[in-house]
Amino acid sequence: MDKQELGTFLRSHRERLRPQDVGLPPGPRRRTPGLRREEVAVLAHISTEYYVRLEQGRAASRPSGDVLAGIAGALLLTDAESDHLHVLAGAAPNRVGLHRRDVRPSILTLLERLPHTAGFVMSATFEVLAWNDLAAALMEDFATLDPKDRNLARRAFLAAERADAPLYGISDSAEFRHHVVSELRAALARYPADHAVSGLVDELREASTDFSRLWERHDVYAAPTLTKTFRHPTVGEITVDCDSLALTDRDQHLVLYSTPQGSPSADALALLGVLGTSAAEYHQ
User: Fold this and answer.
1) What does the radius of gyration of the chain's CA atoms come to, in whole angstroms?
2) Among 14, 47, 187, 275, which is 20 to 30 Å from 40 by CA?
3) Dihedral of CA 257/119/211/149: which sign?
């Protein structure tokens, strides 16, 4: 159980709730934001003293599944946030080794058999591990980069000249950065002994004020299915459907960017397939 991180997570989510959000009367003016600890305890059907110890990182014992379920309900946590709560409390399987960076041969073969879809495999720390030619043409030629520079978290927060510059010209840059922070927080909980994970988080917190600000929010979101637009310097705007498929055996994701058949975006993506990586020259 990560007592300190658990306590910070609970406090962060308690402070963003209003009494009326959970069916309580607003009452008199409050000196601090959010619900009171005793209100969360009542809603979760646990003692106030125990909840206070959990939030302050002083609980001697691991909370039970029923207690965690009660707290998740009291704080109106999403499924993803509830799963993260269980991981922090030591009530869910916790990977104690290193996150995997080797890609299954069958997935490598699949990537090459998708000539009309840009696809790549991403690790738990957002490192691009494998990609097909169309992904390289749409985004950048990953083969020319050092593995450290193939990390999309670093690219999103550190590579741009301006803090708000969109990575690869994508339309959902702010949402992607928020997603990166949330996923790295979950990865750190799964791999507490992996220095590659903790080192990346420390690096980004120190070097990026935007990352540090988002990190302090303690948000945990499930990855949505996206439609996003790339503003490509050679062929213009390309709107793609984005599907992220979990490769659960290695804690990786296969990300696929596809376009509706016969659409202008499909034509632009096909042109990129002809031009190749020489077209992927972005200037942040």
Assistant:
1) 21
2) 187
3) negative
- Nearest CA to 282 out of 173, 126, 147 is that of 173
Residue 272 amino acid letter:
L
Q: How far apart are CA 112 and CA 119, in angstroms?
A: 9
Ramachandran sector of residue 169 (left: φ over 0; alpha: ψ -120 to 50; beta: rest): left
Type and span of the H or E element at 66: helix 65-74
- Each residue's pLDDT tens digit, 23-55: 777 777 777 778 889 888 998 899 999 899 998
**Alpha carbon distance 234, 245 (integer Å):** 29
What does the pLDDT look like over 206-252, one tens digit per residue?
Answer: 999 999 999 988 877 766 668 888 888 888 888 999 999 999 888 89
Cβ-in-10-Å burial (0-12, 13-18, 19+) of 100 comes to middle
Residue with tokens 């699949």: 110
Three-class DSSP category at 6: helix
Please give the helix or strand (H or E) that residue 106 lies within, else none. Answer: helix 105-112
Residue 140 CA from chain centroid, whole number: 21
Residue 246 sits at φ, ψ, to 5 deg, of -75, 130
Q: Fill in the DSSP letter of residue 19.
A: G
Structure tokens at 184: 């790295």
CA 220 to chain centre: 8
